[in-house]
Amino acid sequence: MNFRRILLVAAGGTMGTAARLGLGLVLPDTGGFPVAVLIANVVGALLIGVLAARLPASADLRLMLGTGVLGGFTTYSAFMTGTLDLWTGAPVLAIVYAVGTLVLGLGAAALGLHLGRPRTGGAS
Questions:
Q1: Three-state SS across the chain?
Q2: pTM for the full model?
Q3: Residue 74 has pLDDT above 60, yes or no
């Protein structure tokens, strides 16, 4: 096991988790709707797509930024608990939130992969 790579993920995860907490403090839930979690997950998916397109999977920087920072910034558990919290008072909104997050996240990751691909030179 490579201890240096574990430390890279831990350092990145610390930064990403702190950034998500900061986002949650700046954008508190509006009427019980988890705005910050939605934004973190969609923006994180976009940035993970860019990283995946730009850096090889074995790169330490991708490990630190993707697995560490963005893995700490995005959050599946808060997404699920937010969905369940919404479900108790507004089941339709919970479904819209859950499906919307998945669709937006997939779209953001695909866009990130597209934006991150190196451009080939061509005629204008």
A1: CCHHHHHHHHHHHHHHHHHHHHHHHHCCCECCECHHHHHHHHHHHHHHHHHHHHCCCCCHHHHHHHHHHHHHHCCHHHHHHHHHHHHHHCHHHHHHHHHHHHHHHHHHHHHHHHHHCCCCCCCC
A2: 0.90
A3: yes
